[in-house]
Amino acid sequence: MRIMPLEKRGISNSRIAFGCMGIGGDWTAAPLTKEDYIVAEKAVEAALSIGITMFDHADIYKRGKSEIVFGEVLKKRPDLRDQIILQSKVGIRFQDDVNPQRFDFSKNHMIPAVDGILSRLGVEHLDVLLLHRPDPLMEPEEIAEAFNLLRSAGKVRHFGVSNMTAAQMRFIQNSLPEPLVVNQLELSLARLDWIEQGILVNQKAGVGVNFADGILEHCQMADIQIQAWGPLAKGIFSGKVLKDAPENIVKTAALVKQLAAEKETSLEAVVLGWLMKHPARIQPVIGTSSVERIHACQDAVRVSENMTREEWYTLLESSRGVRVP
Fold first, then answer.
1. For residue 156, which of 63, 150, 170, 282 is within the disulfide window of CB 3.0 to 4.6 Å?
2. Rounded Cα distance, 150 and 125, in Å
3. Catalytic residue status for 313
4. Catalytic residue among 18, 37, 55, 61
5. Whether the predicted pLDDT of 167 surpasses 80
6. What is this structure's pTM?
């Protein structure tokens, strides 16, 4: 059986990661409530119960509150830190009273941003740090300097990127002594540009494909873990009822339901299993805070291993042209 790139590097064998964007209350500066902490604790426990040991954060999630509530979970269970892999992201800065929203891979931003993450989580190090979205003003040499300082200080062990092309990864990697280990991208049954980019080569239908050439191939050759954000496509194939839903969404949802019944599993497991069937050994990052939906993802690995080529292509063909509302 092919193993994940992260597993090859001895970092993680968690086939699914838990994305912590869904915990921490709302996106305002409103203080956290008792209920926010309860939701976070239950979601983390549910993730652990189905074998998830990798947890994905970003310093901007709920304006830092996602990391704060997760830190409280760790405080209650100090033994947990050594059992899990913690990943977070830096590089997006929100608009404020003075400045516009911007991306910032400068050393002067990244180092204090990581200090903030560690403080909110209440930990001494991150296992993986990702650059959140490409910064047009990035200078690879400065990124390398920041990474080296963070690693030598014991604050970060591994580095990766998010939402980047193969060229951007190579551009940054050229200045780094250590390999990038992750690229996190939006991939799902409702976001198929990553598939269409290869299928529609030299076809007019491929002109509108919005996915840079060679990302998957580069990551597979370089043993860079591809993580998928938004893998459940906001639930449009696994229970979310959309008013006046397009025909292809209705058709694909019906196929998912049929396969779930045949395989005696959940709708979520089929949706994730389809994604995980790809030979890149994609690691879905599920973002739901619903205990029920987290538990429903448990069977995804088995589904991915048993899904036939014909079933995979049937789902692909039915969902072409779908976009998440």
1. 150
2. 9
3. no
4. 61
5. yes
6. 0.95
Tens digits of residue pLDDT in 97-127:
899 999 999 999 999 999 999 999 999 999 9
* CA gap 137, 103 in Å, rounded: 8
In the chain, which ranges are continuous DSSP H helix? 5-8, 34-49, 65-76, 107-121, 140-152, 166-173, 193-199, 215-221, 247-262, 267-276, 291-296, 300-306, 309-319
* Structure tokens belonging to residue 193: 């540009």
Which two three-digit tokens encode residue 146?
């920041």
Maximum distance among all Cα pairs of the chain, rounded to whole angstroms: 57
Please report which helix (H) or strand (E) contains residue 226, including its range. Answer: strand 225-229
Q: Contact, 88 vs 129, CB < 8 A?
A: yes
Cα-based angle 154, 287, 101 (whole degrees, multiple of 5): 70
The answer to whether 166 and 197 are in contact (CB under 8 A) is: no
Q: What is the mean pLDDT of residues 115-143?
A: 98
The total of other beta-carbon atoms located within 10 Å of residue 92's CB is 18
